[in-house]
Amino acid sequence: MIRNVLGSVLALAGAAAAVLSPFRDWYDGRLGRHYRIEELFTGITAGRPGPLGSILLAFLFAALLTVVGVVLRSRLLVAAAGVVVLGFTVLWMVRQGQALGSLAVAGDGSGLRWGVAEAAAGGVLLLVGAAVMSGRRPARGTHDQPYKAPGSENPDTWPPTQEPGPSVQTSTLPEPEPELYTGPDPAAHHPDEGPDADGRPRR
Q1: How far apart are CA 195 and CA 40, in angstroms?
Q2: CA–CA separation, 71 vs 15, rounded Å?
Q3: Tell me, what's the pLDDT at 139?
Q4: Do the Cβ atoms of 17 and 122 come closer than 8 Å?
Q5: pLDDT 10s digits, 96-131
Q6: Which residue ranges does the record annotate as region Disordered (predicted)?
Q7: DSSP string for the chain
Q8: Is residue 114 a contact partner of residue 54, using CB atoms and an 8 Å limit?
Q9: What is the Cα–Cα distance from 22 to 120, expressed in whole angstroms?
Q10: d(Cα 129, Cα 18) in Å, to the nearest integer?
């Protein structure tokens, strides 16, 4: 929480510095908002564009990214804003150096001025703020909780007493009773029955 607050303060300060820098002198008494955005890609000229056609527009876009990144606690958006500010500042220095042959810093008011330094400092503050921020942490929900062991909901029945393996189902139907034999006992012996010694049946 503290890191997010500190990083947000640094990022907002950097965005404010970047937005204010085009209203200051950049080189030899010329304001930063007097440079066209397309001049950073085609070459520096002496023309003066309107506010929305100058380098101020790029810095306003970076400030918008910063505000959204701070609200969403997105380090990526804040870092992207810092890259935009530093990128346009360095690109301007390259084009200005190509137009004049060199860049110089003079004490009489000519050469590089405080506007460029303020823009560069704003970009650095944005990158530092993105590095300090801890970002948004994922919400702790049910997916973040460890899985419970099977049967741990009812510890009285754990561990199971049944051995692993296929279960054998037994029939609960009653077994059929054997039929009773009501005839004569085949094991009983009657001496009057059967053939006699000569093989003739007895009467």
Answers
A1: 139
A2: 14
A3: 57
A4: yes
A5: 988 887 777 766 667 788 999 999 999 999 999 999
A6: 137-203
A7: -HHHHHHHHHHHHHHHHHHHGGGSEEETTEEGGGSBTTHHHH---S----GGGBTHHHHHHHHHHHHHHHHHT-HHHHHHHHHHHHHHHHHHHHHHHHHHSS--B-TTS-BB-HHHHHHHHHHHHHHHHHHH---PPPPP-GGGSPPPPTTTTSGGG-S-SSPSS---PPP-SPPPPPPPP-S--TT---TTSSB-TTSPBP-
A8: no
A9: 12
A10: 14
Tokens at residue 198, please? Answer: 């000569």
Of 57-71, 89-103, 189-203, minimum mean pLDDT range: 189-203
| C-alpha angle 70-76-78 in degrees, rounded to nearest 5 | 45
Token couple for 164: 């692993």
